Amino acid sequence: MNTILQHASDEPAGTAAKTAKVWDPLVRLFHWSLAACILGAFLVEEGDTAHRWLGYTALGLIAFRVLWGLVGSRHARFSDWVHGPRAVATYLRERLTGRSQRRLGHNPAAAVMILVLMAGVAAVGLTGWMQTLDAYWGAEWLEELHEALANGLLVLVGVHVLAAIVESLHYRENLIAAMVHGRKRTLDHDRH
Questions:
Q1: Taking the C-alpha atoms of 39, 40, 44 and 45 in order, what is their torsion angle to the nearest 10 degrees?
Q2: Under a CB-based contact definition with an 8 Å cutoff, are residues 10 and 169 in contact?
Q3: Rounded CA gap, 147 and 18, in Å?
């Protein structure tokens, strides 16, 4: 395992922190590409060619991530981080009481957020694509649904970013940077 000088405030100065590769390059490329597509789709004119292609690209990224969640690297696989409702409830209870263990991969609450975000992106993309079909051309209810889903997705993205900041502060580790370089600090009590 590699070491780098990356200190949490509870580590003595001059101590090399052990790190582990958690997020593979494809997970990181997916994450930032999807973020760029979502941001771009909100910045360009609705119905514009660029808006549509950003949506189609986001749908393609979701399809890729589902596939990579089945066959990808350890922490990319759904089997590593998707847990049942009981595990999520237990994690949230432990987190609220300050007894939750840090995890190298996604915690159960983050897993729920990721799945909801992926479903949200898929729903926004599909309702956008449906508007191009003759059967739904000019259907006002579909336009309104697409817009409501897109606005809901923005709220979810905001919650996701806020949660990453809160968890970064709580565990004294920059989780956003980890999604750039792929490494996280390891501790003896980490849950893998």
A1: -70
A2: no
A3: 45
Partners of 103 in the β-ladder: 191
- State how far the Cα of 168 lies from the Cα of 179, in Å rounded to an integer: 12
Question: How many whole angstroms separate alpha carbon 111 and alpha carbon 81?
Answer: 6
What would the mean pLDDT of 121-136 be, rounded to a whole number? Answer: 96
Q: What is the pTM of this model?
A: 0.85
Question: Read out DSSP for 79-117?
Answer: HHH---HHHHHHHHHHHHTT-PPPBSS--HHHHHHHHHH
In the three-class reduction of DSSP (H, G, I as helix; E, B as strand; rest coil), residue 63 is classed as helix
Residue among 119, 115, 105 at smallest CA distance from 178: 105
> Could you tell me how far CA 156 lies from the centroid of its own chain?
10
pLDDT tens for each residue of 151-162: 999 999 999 999
Which percentage of the chain shows pLDDT scores above 90?
76
Residue 49 exposure: Cα atoms within 13 Å on the Cβ side = 0
The Cα–Cα gap between 128 and 51 comes to: 9
Give the three-state DSSP class for 192. Answer: coil
